[in-house]
């Protein structure tokens, strides 16, 4: 197809490939997210967390808001606290090579802090924050079982998602 032709990404017409503007919308959301992540980093540091812990939480939330929340359609992190259940119970386990019990626990801790930060900023309601805490409390053991079964070579992949 491109034999003996020089191919330049700048020659691609994104309007033609993306008539609904997904990529522009995603880029716009990711720019908002960068500002939000910096504010979150500052907020965590203000809480006295170690640099290592701050880095871990920011990296995890970055992956969630810039990869998962823009994967199927572009969403802001304040739009739906229920998304964490689909993320930790399915998408993260299948898409992230580093998915593990420890990673699930780290994400749960990070989500609690991030959504508390969003609540304090007025981006979500207290009810949304309480709902997030409830989701984590009720579903965390399921997510840990899913990642264990997914990583078990003896497990039938059909049984991984069966609850």
From TrEMBL:
UniProt KW keywords: DNA-binding
Listed GO MF terms: DNA binding
Identification of the protein by name: Phage integrase family protein with SAM-like domain
Organism: Halanaerobium saccharolyticum
